[in-house]
Amino acid sequence: MAKKKIKFTRPELKRQRDDLKRFQRYLPILKLKQQMLQMTLRTISKKRDEAEQAKIKAIAVFEKYGVILKDIAGVNVKSLAECKEILTHESNIAGVNVPVYEDVVFEKAAYSLFTTPAWVDDTIEDLREVNRCNARMEILQRQFDLLQKELSKIIQRVNLFEKVKIPEAKENIRKIKIQLSDEMAAAVGRAKIAKGKLTEKEMANA
């Protein structure tokens, strides 16, 4: 995109100065938001790692049952442990609305208490814990993706202000001031010449 041609006038000088002040005022706000997002992303990444470790432990607990799960007649443990709904609420983090994990809703476990071993309840709960960990990780990943997208936008704006807009405004101000100074000097020079000619004319007529 071609740069907008500037006018070497006093109104243009004021506009460029106003733009520069605005850019310099917004830049610290953008940098603060960038820092907040970066800190939040590190926190979410840590929580995501913790959820992953919790999932590994939950899987280890569940896998202890091994082959005996196949001996439970009429009970589909995996089906009973599946998530019916992930409960979340919305929170605003650094100006971005993100989902926050609350809990998981499961289907009601309906099976005969008389024909199934007592440890089936524990088995279902252990597998549900694995799925809770998966749900937490899913929501944390959504948070991370949304905030990472916002961070990319903020970094672009910071770079635009720091590397383009502010230097450009400063350079435009410098050029306009030089041009106006040259024009003033030329005007003063013309005024002196005109005054000198007028003085000569008056002396000649005296």
Strand order of the largest sheet: 1-2
Tell me the quaternary state: single chain
Helix-residue proportion: 55-70%
Write the CATH architecture name.
Answer: Orthogonal Bundle
CA distance, first residue to last residue: 64 Å
Whole-angstrom Rg: 36 Å
- Overall spatial form: rod-shaped
Domain count = 1
Please write the CATH class name: Mainly Alpha
Order of helices and strands: HHEEH
Strand content: 5-15%
The profile of the biggest β sheet is: 2 strands, antiparallel
Structural class label = mainly alpha
- Strand tally is 2
Q: Identify low-pLDDT runs.
A: none
Q: With helices defined by DSSP (H or I, 4 residues minimum), what is the helix count?
A: 3
CATH topology: Helix Hairpins
Mean pLDDT comes to 85
Summed up, what is this model?
It contains three helices and two strands, in the order H-H-E-E-H.
Describe the structure.
It is a single chain. This protein is mainly alpha-helical. The chain has a single domain (23-191), classed as Helix Hairpins (Orthogonal Bundle). The protein has helices at residues 10-63, 77-80, 120-205; strands at residues 83-93, 96-106. It has a two-stranded antiparallel ribbon with strand order 1-2. It starts with 9 loop residues before the first helix and ends with a helix. The model has no long low-confidence stretch (mean pLDDT 85).
